[in-house]
Amino acid sequence: MLLKVGVHLPNGWQESIANRARFILENSGEKPGDDQTWFDLVQEVSMQSNGTFYCWLALTGCYPDKFEFKDFATQVTIYGLPQAVQNVLTNKSKVTETARNLIAVELVTPKHAHLVDVTHTYSAPYLTGIQRVVFGVTDGPKNVSTFIWVGDSGIIQEKVMRMAEVSESPPSALGWRIRVVHYLHAQVPKLDKSRIGTRLRILSLPLARTIKRRLVARDVDKQVKSNPNQKWTNLLILNTSMTVPEIPASLRHICIYESILENEIVPVQIILYDFIPFFHAWTVHYGNRGHLNSYIRIVLLANRIVSISSLVQEQAKLITQAFRLERNEWSKRKQTFDYMTLPSGLKPAMTGEFEKQRNLVVMAGSLEPRKNHIQFLSALELLVKDDARIKARILGSAGWENEHILEKIHDLQSKGVDIERLGNLTDSEMRTLIAEAQVLLQISEAEGFGLPIAEALALGTKVIVSNIRPLNEWDHSRVSHVQIGDLEQLKLELSKILNNPEKEGVVSEEEITWQDWHQLLFGEKSTF
Hints:
Strand content: 5-15%
Strand order of the largest sheet: 4-3-2-6-7-8-9
CATH class of the largest domain: Alpha Beta
Radius of gyration: 26 Å
Helix content: 40-55%
Number of helices: 21
CATH topology of the largest domain: Rossmann fold
Distance between the termini: 46 Å
């Protein structure tokens, strides 16, 4: 059906568009008349601040990505609002999902003005350092609404975060496909117990990733299509600020953030962990490089960048400064830069809570190139040749490009060395292993902060770090520094600690807390 502005729209469309437009106007402080037509209301929305952007939202019920918005704004300029609206409705009516959204989506006001994107962490079957930070910054503040993007639709909904142990079953609210993903993810570490298992896992990875993507996509699609008459709520971001504490879950989400930032719809702040994909692309899985490079774009445009170390903040200032050299309009954009180091992602230990194992050494971090496991394993081999007795545990997920690391682990195991990689640990299990260890290693070739260091010190465990920023900025009596690649130096540091084992750890009081982060991000003085 050819849609013409001024004629009757298909059943329900007219009312839905009018309701969304009226809702936007009311939240803008306007009082639309009861006798106004749907197009009158849309036209009035267009005259508000950022009116073209909110026109699209009123019409479609969804937020536009940068390409959709640019096309719509161009059509408004060339053909005028009536023709641009007609074109949008005509195009959206041709696709089942977008046609359904035209009638099914209603706008709602979030409970709080601070919106935090937790899309990835909300359904993640694991807890990385970033996921721990997401929980840390959202657990406690009373003035924050956490939200997730619903698939790639451009719809956001409030969701309450729940810190679950990894071993627990995923929330029943998740579809069976997502629960299958959680289950399979928990089984992966079991394969690496043997060489044959490792080879099987590596060979099956491409298929496993494809199956995971399809299961996740179909789960979202099933939710949307389960009830064709279902109403969908979409948070109105007008008069809010947005916080992005993790890399957005999809490329389309990044493009929507670009639309919001480029057109200065609402202020957005980013928690920035590192520029490792930028400076050390060799450490990043090839399948993620394009996504991470796109993410850098919203870092460059963000109103505020909150870094987790002074190094990352300095890098952010330099890179964004270089970005602004390209265009005059970019040079006029105002950005705020802050940084704060991270507290422990695990509950600090009470004095006397743990008794240390005499020869336990742990290394935290997924098996990936930049974590530098090979230096640890090689130094371990030197110690074993000197008849040292060591119980070594590597705490982390399988990671990527790690065949040589796993092969080295299996080789040491075949020689009788007590070493094991433990993945999918609960917080309780992780906490106990770090607290009972004599030392934790964080000897990465590149890091943004080094969360395991904060965790080890808060649990009373000594730490050995590589001599790179920001790891070498830990000026602490229980932190030792070694050069990357220096096996003898690492061997000597390990020997010193293991030859003088502790029975109890010495707990270091944390200077920074998650409450400090809450104040920095969402406090009264947090303006951006």
